[in-house]
Amino acid sequence: MALNLVNQLGELNPQLFREIKGRLKPRNILIAVAMSFLGQLLLLMVFAGQLPVAKDTMMVYNRYCTGSTEEYSTIPTCLSDGLGGFVINWSFWWQDVFLGLSLIGIFALLVVGTYMLISDLSQEERRGTLNFLRLTPGSTLSILGGKLLGVPLLLYLVAALALPLHLVAGLAGHIGLSQILAFYTVLGVSCLFFFSGALLFGLVGNGLGGFQAWLGGGAILLFLSISTSVIDGGMTHYPTDLLTLFNPAILLPYLINSSSLDVVNTYPNGDFWDLGWFYLPIGKTIWMMAGFAILNAGLWSYWIWQGLNRNFHNPTATLLSKRQSYRLTACLEVMILGFALNPQVTNWRTYAEGLFENLEILLVFNLILFLGLIAALSPHRQTMQDWARYRHAKRSSRKAGIMADLIWGKTSPAPVAIFLNLAIASAILLPWILLWSPSEYKTPAILAVFVTVSLIVFYASIGQLVLLMKTPKRAVWAATVVGGIIILPPIILEVLSMSPSVEPAVWLFSAFPWASIEYAAGTSVLFALVGQSLALVLLNLQLTRQLKKAGESSTKALLSGRMPLEIQ
């Protein structure tokens, strides 16, 4: 019967069968089982070592005791149980075990699983078997889904063997079974998101070699560490609260009623429970928080798989189509805007200041998003040459349909599509800004959006021009040039002690114009917009000239029966 199941699995998903066959070997299984049980034993020993021990006539204090607390201490005294020991709050102790095992499981699954998936794809690339997988008739979902399930198989085994202890600890700590299952669901969807992202990074970042897996795993470790610390302090009412929803630890404060580790607060402040999205109180109950976390991770997993579907079988294609990018931009802007509507008001920050700070963070998110879109939508030299040759050969439709081709075409240059994506983002942000109550921040906020739009289109044009060069490793050059234009000016300005409040006009030409726009005069902002517009016109004229030249020379070479010089 087991043989029949294995054969059926091989027919349903050959890639998963291949991964299972290669990894489920007796030696590997024994190592995974030993690691899981040894880890659980060590965890129990650590927490057992924190229980109180009698010390002759000395008063004993311990967090697990049930006595009263001193005036300047939160640690209770230990009461004797009459049998030479102390009365222990075992429910509290088991909650600590549950929390410790939960955090270890989150970090182990997400960090190690990400590393394993990226490393596996990197090895497939080095062995040359990745191209073989691309040529197989299976779908992207079947092949990469098999890897997603099969590559971390031993890690799944380690986690599965720890489930009984985790469940016992939770139930003994008076945590409801339904709440524990909600945590497992959120953890599972988070694994889907991070592992899907690992597959995408493994495909598009294979030029990094052996460093790629360490970079991916390290990035996830850093993200989990920072976001867990944020959860420890409560929500910030910044748009960055969206990022914490990717961390399954977001549910832990709902599951426990006491603090056991320094990384998670048991009684989060009101900011945590008041977390809202478009004023919907998603932090009010564990079910609303779990539902929104699942929706968030599931939504972005869907978009990652859109990129995987396009890139896996055709690695030379852009990561997203232009049509997909417009929907992605609208989706992200709506999601993140929902967390910016209700800033936290403190004794040093008014409501208007909070709104402007939230807008600044939104613009940073947009900068990161559009740098990603520039990389995802910008075709490389050969693709643009083919497009230019087609446009040159089809003279009758060259003028009539060029704008539609720039907006929707699969191989056309990216700057127009980037501009349309920026227009979509602005159309979502500007009505929100216009609804602000009258304040000194309203006009600077509107100007910040326009200046940021102009700068990002400038970066897109620069990146597309670099990708049209004849030099090898054009993608590396494009990333270096655009990254240098973004990073170097603020560093130089800071070294020269030219802060945004002192020299606001100069900062308007950096990647962070919103930092100085509230200090800049209206004429300075106008000058910046005019200067950026002129630079955009010149860049796109140069891009048009080079594309026209490439199209003409390629067509002439083909008509003469020889290979174009540009692509030899």
How many strands, which pairing sense, and closed or not: the largest β-sheet? none
Radius of gyration: 28 Å
Distance between the termini: 58 Å
Helix percentage range = 55-70%
Number of strands: 0
Question: What would the average pLDDT be, to the nearest integer?
Answer: 84
- The topology string of helices and strands comes to HHHHHHHHHHHHHHHHHHHHHHH
Could you tell me the strand content as a percent range?
Answer: under 5%
Low-confidence stretches: 258-270, 562-568
| Count of runs of 4 or more consecutive helical residues | 23
In one word, what is the shape? Answer: globular
Structural class: mainly alpha
Structure, described:
There is one protein chain. This protein has 568 residues and is an all-alpha fold. The protein is 68% helix and 0% strand. The chain is built from 23 helices and no strands. The chain has helices at 2-12, 14-23, 26-48, 90-127, 129-135, 140-150, 153-172, 177-204, 211-233, 241-244, 252-255, 270-273, 286-311, 322-337, 351-377, 381-393, 395-398, 402-408, 415-434, 442-467, 474-495, 504-507, 522-559. Helix 1 (2-12) packs across helix 2 and helix 15 (351-377) packs parallel to helix 20 (442-467). The longest helix is centred in the first third of the chain and has 38 residues, at 90-127.
Helix-strand blueprint:
Elements: H1 2-12, H2 14-23, H3 26-48, H4 90-127, H5 129-135, H6 140-150, H7 153-172, H8 177-204, H9 211-233, H10 241-244, H11 252-255, H12 270-273, H13 286-311, H14 322-337, H15 351-377, H16 381-393, H17 395-398, H18 402-408, H19 415-434, H20 442-467, H21 474-495, H22 504-507, H23 522-559
